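Researcher: Predict the fold of Oligosaccharide flippase family protein.
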Amino acid sequence: MSSKLIRGTFILTLGTFISKFLGLFYVIPFYSIVGKEATSLYQYGYVPYTIFISIATAGVPLAVSKFIAKYNALGEYAVGRRLFKSGLMIMSLTGILAFLVMYTFAPAFAKMVVLDKEQIYTIEEVAYVIRAVSFALIIVPFMSLMRGFFQGHQSMGPSAVSQVIEQIARIIFLLAGAYIVLNVLSGNVVEAIGAATFAAFVGAVFGLLVLFWYWKKRKKHLDELLEKDEGKTHVSLVDIYSEIVVYAIPFIFVGIAIPLYQLVDMATFNRAMAAIGQAKISDTVFGIVNFSTQKIVIIPVSLATAFAMTLVPLVTSSFVSGEAGKVKKQLDQTFQVLLFLTVPAVVGIMLLAEPFYTVFYEQSGIGTDILRTYAPVAILFALFTVTAAILQGINEQRFTVFSLLFGILLKFALNIPLIKMFQAEGAIYATAIGYSASIIINLLVIRHYAGYSLRSVAGKIGQIVLFNAIMAAVVFAAYAGLNPLFDAGSKVQGTVLIAICAVIGAAVYFFLSLRTGLADGLFGARLDRLKNKFGKAKA
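Model: Structure tokens for Oligosaccharide flippase family protein follow.
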């Protein structure tokens, strides 16, 4: 069973990674098709959609899979099936309700961002895009419950495959739809963005069809399990759903953390920019902050948290077993791995901000400046995600809600004054302050309930900072020497420049980490296996 569980976890993780990878890099052709101004319009539609979909579905697959797995282990297969059937009906109603609310109140959301006649888009145009993306809400909650059902039966393949197919179908329709509207049908950019956001519905349809195919294929086996049902336990659906809601709420808040911060920007950014006479460029700059640069910044966050989060289940197990020493050691490793991977990526993005922005989008002075300012916030995104997961592991997830709301309130209070002082960078500073406050609260709770403090790894963190400073100096020197030899506006040459500097930086960083034993301490057996394989290949 354990090997099956490990295999299933790997499949689900791989599927999630592929889906996120595709979701990060489709922006390059999309930006080329619609242009920089249109990205803000796309984001105006997607931010409220992400919040609605997260509230409707976040935590549902995990919560449902947990309960189905629990009762399957007891031989009470009928309980899980009853939950599944009633859940499908409830999630269908939830999805339709969410769709109706978002579709109906689209003009109200649009009025949050269109505050000045000098802005590029009108209230009607923004509302059109919001309504186009809202249709996906009808399907996605239903689909999320089906994924949870399969995961509860230790069958991770359906969820992984459906995620990947959903993302592929969405991106194909998004790119093809936007291109056809603009270049074949001679439509305008608003219609193109409407087609691009409607792609969420198309992707969801394909993801659901995959799950239906798996259901048909495996129904015989699932029905055979029902025949083995013990029939000794009667569980009230009211009790189950009450527990599911309590379990899912922290996941909902963690899942909508970044969209909530973006929602604050939607409500305040254009207002603040108009107040300082910058309404003409407000939409464009909003797109750079909340779409263009954010897509690049989130790359190191996805990679680092994926690695560090694999350690969190071990923390949970040790904490429940009362092994305080083991918990401390695992938390040490979690934070060190997180910073070891995230900090150099952030440093690299800051130093190479110009070629990064050019490769993803186009050569832009303002885009480069905003990306360089935004990059360090990636460390805060990663730390918040991991500290929130640790709170879940030590069963103190209620504080996640408090810390996030406190951070959001800080962001809301500081956003307008900081934007008036620093323009676009002010929104980033407010985000950094809000996330920092949330992380501090999470760490204080971890210290109180798990007896853990980051002081125990201060020396290792100091090493990571020192090695990154040395690496930064070397990469800066290499970049300064090579940059004049490359065309700053070329995507191909920009990619080559990034690759050369990245190889130099990685070589310096890992050389220092290996020579001092830092890497051995963090990755242990994994690194030994890699060294052995390399040694055998060399021999």
